[in-house]
Amino acid sequence: MRRPVARNLTVLAVSAAVVVSVGAAAPPSAPSGTGGGKTPLAVGYGGAVSSVDPDASAAGIEVLRKGGNAVDAAVATAAALGVTEPYSAGVGGGGYFVYYDAKSRTVRTIDGRETAPLSADKNLFVENGKPLAFADAVSSGLSVGTPGTPATWQTALDQWGSKRLAGVLKPAERLARDGFTVDETFRSQTASNEARFRYFPDTAELFLPGGRLPVVGSTFKNPDLARTYAELGREGVDALYHGRLGRDVVDTVNKPPVDPGSGWNARPGDLTAKDLARYRTKVQAPTKTSYRGLGVYSMAPSSSGGTTVGEALNILERTDLSQASKARYLHRFIEASRIAFADRGRWVGDPAFEDVPTKELLSQEFADARECLIKDDAVLTSPVPPGDPRHPQRCGSGGTAAPTTYEGDSTTHLTVADKWGNVVAYTLTIEQTGGSGITVPGRGFILNNELTDFSFAPANPAVHDPNLPGPGKRPRSSISPTIVLDRHHRPVVALGSPGGATIITTVLQTLTGFVDRGLPLVDAIAAPRASQRNAAQTEVEPGLDSDVRKQLEAIGHSFKVNPEIGAATGVQRLPGGKWLAAAETVRRGGGSAMVVRPVR
């Protein structure tokens, strides 16, 4: 039996607000590098920003205070994350932008995914007849796709913003010039990349000052990036796609500036000025799924986020998760994820190259045909074969399961709302932590390794793989920025997360925790996570209840511990024009939620 919308949306909003004692806001005139500390929860008026970093959230709040809208603030926050989270995002990467327009009550999206060079083919990562080892491919020019982030910023501002690019880049430019305070997360991420950063002299000079790891509490400055932002503000994004900045990127990809004494074989890429000049973002309709009477909107392919989260929600629609025990809730969540990933692997790729059955993957008919595979007293054996969404058969599976390709677990997500009711959920990335490891000389940013999200070779040569490389093709992503609307097309909640392929399960678990289990948004974000991606074992965080784990193991589940899964942020609309911003309490050192005018 279908359940009505989770109790009552007003009750949900009020229950979330009750847990708030103090709202966080950036200081009225927050100087660079002093974003006001990390506070994972804030409630107030005038708009809200939530990100992993206080300086980045403060940049967005600054733009909102100066009359900017959610789009302007999102770009400002993203640019600031390029300073303070340079191993997760920046000018050298790409991402996906989801926007809710309060005036028309509609959702639109921007696909700003990186693209393969026009010279690429299915053998991009094949050498001497064999697929390259992943580690050999990552820190090379081969892994670098045409950056999409600057084009995404400009597209968003042109379509829905109210400020010019130069203006919204100013807080980030100032932050890069004046510096920010190094925290333990930044130091540890640098340490985990230290060996390969030393392959590239420009990367080592910037991120290993004086040849050493940055010291916690010290000030980290990036004057090269400040100048890059100033150039983008002055010349527009043509500086990258048609200008000197672009020429510097091409030279770096094709002749990676490697330390000859390192012995590292930094394989050259084949990026050209034509690749940059031909790059285009795609403004497109979102995916839409109905769940408990709510409209769930997210990214359509080239990302698999919207279809996979949506299919899993449709599978769960038949189960009353609000009344289920914790063990049954997690069992159903895990099995729905397993099935949805099976179908993702078979059917989702870049729709410019592949016939992706997006509508059929999101149909309730297909979900119902797949849901019947789930048993309450047994566990499906992975890898589960895919179903056929165009010809759904009850409990039907067929073909060969495709393994989930590795996607870097870095990336970063931000969520913004403004006083007019517009909302942005934006996930941006350079793929894995530290990207390719290659810094563009004199430019202050690392290039992505996004092309390693392609399959290096078909899992089964007899079965078509929709995620093989191709000329100008976008690699499949799991990025899932999501906006949820009520039946009147007003926002309820917006959220997203980094985490590679675990993004999908993080968004799914956070949504069901909030909508079905009645958790306040900050608690839904903080809850211990599980991630099943059609594998033999389900990854779980250490905090998952041991008694629940034992109950699940008793029916056949197998687990392995992942210390940290994702780093979500979100905003929630409350009654009376208020917004709640929520972020991580612990993961990545905790996130930063801020509002323009906080209330107690």
UniProtKB/TrEMBL annotation:
Residues 380-408 are annotated as: Disordered. Cleaved by autocatalysis into a large and a small subunit. Keywords: Acyltransferase, Glutathione biosynthesis, Hydrolase, Signal, Transferase, Zymogen. Residues 1-24 form the signal peptide. It comes from the Bacteria. The keyword Hydrolase applies. Its EC number is 2.3.2.2, 3.4.19.13. Pathway: Sulfur metabolism; glutathione metabolism. It catalyses: an S-substituted glutathione + H2O = an S-substituted L-cysteinylglycine + L-glutamate; glutathione + H2O = L-cysteinylglycine + L-glutamate; an N-terminal (5-L-glutamyl)-[peptide] + an alpha-amino acid = 5-L-glutamyl amino acid + an N-terminal L-alpha-aminoacyl-[peptide]. PANTHER family: GLUTATHIONE HYDROLASE, GLUTATHIONE HYDROLASE PROENZYME. This enzyme consists of two polypeptide chains, which are synthesized in precursor form from a single polypeptide. Belongs to the gamma-glutamyltransferase family. This is Glutathione hydrolase proenzyme.
